[in-house]
Design a protein that fits this description.
Layout lengths: L3 E8 L2 E7 L9 H8 L9 E6 L8 E7 L4 E2 L3 H15 L3 E6 L2 E7 L5 E7 L21 E2 L2 E2 L2 E4 L3 E6 L8 H9 L9 E7 L5 E7 L3 E2 L4 H14 L5 E6 L2 E7 L4 E6 L2 E8 L6
Parallel strand pairs: 2-3, 4-6, 12-13, 14-16
Antiparallel strand pairs: 1-2, 1-19, 3-4, 4-5, 6-7, 7-8, 8-18, 9-10, 11-12, 13-14, 14-15, 16-17, 17-18
Amino acid sequence: MRGAPFVKMHGLGNDFVVLDARTRALDLTDAQVRAIADRRTGVGCDQLIVVRPARDAGADAFMEIRNADGGEVEACGNATRCVAGMLMGESGRDAAIVQTVAGLLGGSAAAGGRVTVDMGVARTGWAEIPLREACDTLHVPLSLGPLGDPVATNIGNPHATFFVANVDEIDLATLGPQLEHHPIFPQRANIGVAHVTPEGGLRLRVWERGVGITQACGTGACAAMVAAVRRGLTGRRATIVLDGGPLEMEWRADGHVMMTGAIATSFSGFLDASLLG
């Protein structure tokens, strides 16, 4: 494990430490993940990504996703775009299939060096989110302070999207963790606040489960897109502007959510043994 190489990548500021375990054994404890993710004493990241050999013949690689708190999660849209871009760079092809515990996610090259990913079918049933009990996921009976009446969506992981007049007036740092841990969400939830822009798109901020407020949340953008269409607030194609920049979104008629946005590599290096002790 000494000197394990890594690449630091980000999608609109949602940043990742990417480790390649396709040819070497790499098993990290929650404590080791937290040490690497620490922004003062480690490398710093929202999520740590381990790229492993594909478990399915139809995939190019398997992507393990660990939040900054060490816990493993099912999906991460911006990380999927980053890993798909990395795999396409290695192969010289303009498409890649990334396998996650949430399924096979297809990525393809888009104009301007961006990457498009098919995040799969959005799920909207209460048991699929999951919620604690049966209810209408278009109007979840949940409120806290200025937030209420969210839409619940599963994009490989659970989301609650609240529509407000102005997201920048919401104290998400205070409300986010309380809503993440609300009993109605047995697996906790990512919390998004969104408003419709004059251009007919969305402005979105997200409190990510196990991470906190991030510059961008890909699955959160997918959930907001689905929620907005279900509420009749936008068309099936829209631009969603996060703190880190824009994502071009589409909720197709077949239920699949498509996401296009920029990716970047910040730097690469080697993890010191102290981070793996």
